[in-house]
Amino acid sequence: MSRAKKSDANFLMQGSLLAIASIISRIIGLVYRLPLTAIIGKEGNNYYGTAFEIYNLILLISSYSIPLAVSKLVATRMAQGQAKNAWKFLKGSLIFASISGGTFALIVWFEADFFTAKLLATPLASIALKVLAPVIFLVAIAGVLRGFFQGLNSMMPTALSQIAEQIVNAIVSVIAAYLLYQYGARVGAVLGDSKEYAAAWGAAGGTLGTALGACTSLAFLIFVLVLYRRRFRKKMRRDRTTSMDSYGSIMWLLFSTIVPVLLSTTLYNISSIIDQSIFKNFALFQGYKQHSVDVWWGVYSGQYRVIINVPISIASSMASSSVPALITSYKSGDMSDVRSKIHAATRFIMVIAFPCTIGIFVLAGPIQRLLFSDADPTSAYMLMVGAISVLFYSLSTLSNGLLQGIDRLKIPVKNAAIALVLQAGFLLGAMQFFRLNIYAVILANAFYAFLMCLLNGRAVVKYSGTHQDVKSTFIIPLLGSVIMGIAVYLVYIVIDRGLGSNALGTLVSIIAGIIVYFFVMLSLGGITRAELGRIPHGDRLIALAERMHLLR
């Protein structure tokens, strides 16, 4: 195997590990949202979702860019054989994260009422938001440790910490939501609105699980770092670097790297805050009742986005693993390897994003009934309309990471700013002229991601010279996904109508869809032997395909 192929295999393997962990975490998140939604209701989901909108935005500003920046800088130092400077970057980054995370945690704590009441017209969400405030500090520190290991091209600590975090989150969220819902009902009985206070306090119980999950994740990462420190010291002893980075230069490098990444990720994700602000205020202005608006947003934030974020998280994982791998090749001037990695990562994501998009579209209603016991047609239509977002967000999320990996940090910032302005105009127009209510938000999100695909894709081609194989990357996965979608629909209809079981029909049709897609893609040559070998346990899949005489 050539050096480029080995390099591709390694970074795809690391990306696959992170993607698998992310999927497991998201599935756990889906499972615990079932009882959580049953406890706090759609009104509670509205408070829960509102608190997380603010929390996620603050994390974007204070913490989300830290792992990427740290991994990029550590990977650069390690590519140059500077283990001592890489370790010094870890220490400097911890100082930086403590300051930024601690500052923003205090801001959220003291200004929670302003954020929820004044900006998003949901005052009682401040209870849940205050619970989330300390988590901002914890996530910032954990982000540094994750970035350090990712810079060493090891995704396992990040993967395992994510799973541990989500398990604790799931258990604590459900228990705390139940207990605090009861407490909120008693408080509301005294204040005259037991239902709203119960929902608000129940949502706070859900966010308490997030806090304790973050504590668990950080403790695990610290434990891994302590174990790894002895091994890393051997690398530092072999390091003959004489020019050591000062803490001042480290802070400046972190700042100069974080700012463009920060602006990009903030603009890329702030659209949800803008959507909520425009939608809620404009919908009330148009005469929709507050309860209807809250329920729509509760379904959107607590059900719709939870579902579509599962496949999108795969792209996020691949983007995270791409940055240090691309930086290493790019800094060494090996553009052939850079193009090979970009091609492989894009193919990997499209092979997954297309069937997820079609599957969510076909099973929109059954999934909502299975996960959230929600038979409301509106909830199903929301998922059907927004299914295309999975494809666009997957590709645009990956392209953000690819551009950052080839040192084009400012381009995603410019593209996100352009897309954000156009998206806001699209949303206002859809609500004003077509009165699409919550569907306007879903379509605006898809429009934003589509624009990012176009703008980022053009930049990736321009600065890397990569030309994607259209047939193997887009046409074959699309064709395989359509065939899969037809099979999924037929299997579901037979079981649902024959046995009257939505749960059984949904689960069996999903399994059938995976099998059909795998067979179709192998038959069409959409997945090669080499590509199967680059994913965890790929050798078993190769052996199965050989027995079926499906590998070319």
Structure notes:
- This protein has helices at residues 3-79, 83-110, 112-119, 126-151, 156-191, 194-238, 247-269, 271-285, 290-331, 335-362, 364-372, 377-386, 388-405, 410-434, 438-464, 470-499, 502-523, 529-533, 538-547.
- The protein has 19 helices and no strands.
- Helix 7 runs parallel beside helix 14.
- It is mainly α.
- The radius of gyration is 23 Å and the shape is globular.
Question: SSE layout and pairings?
Answer:
Layout: H1 3-79, H2 83-110, H3 112-119, H4 126-151, H5 156-191, H6 194-238, H7 247-269, H8 271-285, H9 290-331, H10 335-362, H11 364-372, H12 377-386, H13 388-405, H14 410-434, H15 438-464, H16 470-499, H17 502-523, H18 529-533, H19 538-547
In short:
With 552 residues, the protein is mostly helical.
Radius of gyration: 23 Å
Largest sheet features: none
Distance between the termini: 19 Å
Mean pLDDT: 86
- SSE series: HHHHHHHHHHHHHHHHHHH
- What are the segments in which pLDDT stays under 50 over at least 5 consecutive residues? none
Query: DSSP strand (E) fraction?
Result: under 5%
Q: Compute the number of helices.
A: 19
Q: Total number of β-strand segments?
A: 0
Q: Helical residue percent?
A: over 70%
Find the structural class using helix and strand composition. mainly alpha
Shape: globular
